Amino acid sequence: MIRQGSCARASFAGMTARKLALLAPLTLAFAASPALAVDAIDGVYVDSGGYVEVTVSPCGQARCGKITRIIRRKPGESNRDAHNDDPALRDRPILGLTLLTGLQWRDGAWRGQVYNPEDGGTYRSVVRAGENGALEVEGCLGPFCRKRIWPAKSR
Predict the structure, then answer these.
(1) How far from 32 is each of 1, 25, 26, 41, 139, CA to CA, in Å?
(2) Cα–Cα distance for residue pair 140/16, rounded to 1 Å
(3) Per-domain residue ranges for the chain?
(4) What pLDDT digit, counting tens, does each position of 2-55 carry?
(5) Which of 63, 134, 135, 139 has the most CB atoms in a 10 Å sphere around its CB?
(6) Do 39 and 126 contact (CB within 8 A), yes or no?
(7) Which numeric CATH code is attached to 38-150?
């Protein structure tokens, strides 16, 4: 013997399951939206050697990182971009130099370019928010990458 109420419950449960099945892909797409998963990286960091402060902020539709303070000079180095690949740029000051350029959020990280004033090279870059507010900066040449941790500036 089948009760009338049990059929109504089974029908309602089936309808709810169907609705959920239709809504699940939309919910997952919304939850995985890059706008919701973007790691915030704007802030002030100290390079891994403790020589300069780098401020990361918006620049157009991307993020950039610029040297905003020289903490101490590296022994034997001038305050100019002496190692730049372009001889015409070797006399520009280190203060104000943009190290991180064109950082766009893609595939779970900020991707762009990083300029290394120590060797004058510009490299493909992957940047992520690290532990304790630090910034993980990876510079890559082909398949080879080197990661540096830039701690957040102490307040």
Answers:
(1) 47, 10, 10, 19, 27
(2) 50
(3) 4-32, 38-150
(4) 445 544 444 444 444 444 343 344 333 333 444 445 889 999 999 999 999 999
(5) 135
(6) no
(7) 2.40.128.520
